[in-house]
# Entry
Amino acid sequence: MAVLNILKLGHPTLVKKAVPIEVIDDGVRRLAKDMIETMHAAPGLGLSAPQVDVSRRLITVDLSVGEKEGETFAIVNPEIFEQEGKVIRDEGCLSVPEVFEKVARPQKVKVKGLDLDGRELIIEAADLLARVLCHEIDHLNGKLFIEWLSPLKRNLIKKRFKRQAEKKSRS
Ligand SMILES: [Zn+2]
# Structure
């Protein structure tokens, strides 16, 4: 297993629509394991494959951030097929570090996809889990959470990250 590098705002893979996974092979299972290790090390509640520069439809989630066993799961090709309600809460992203902004998300979602053995999964989620699932599935569609903010706020954040990246490449 390995801790992978998490891409930051401004990287082109983060704004690309990820492709479905056709075959769940050892490569996909290894990627999921590495993503889980990366998510726990970060630490974060969820991670999507595009954030580690793999443009494929795979997410990992663990609300306990590695504290509790059996809380970690991976979903291949996740899709929201039902949603209900609305909750506005602060949200952050490992690809946009140190930025926390209020985002409206459904209070409940139903998500379907496959587990790492190719079995069909249906997850009914509420509150924080619903938020994390929506956030990670957005990543698969090339959408960062800052896209939900006002254009003014979004552009300020983008500019700040651009300046930081430029500083880094100069030093
Ligand atoms: Zn994120």
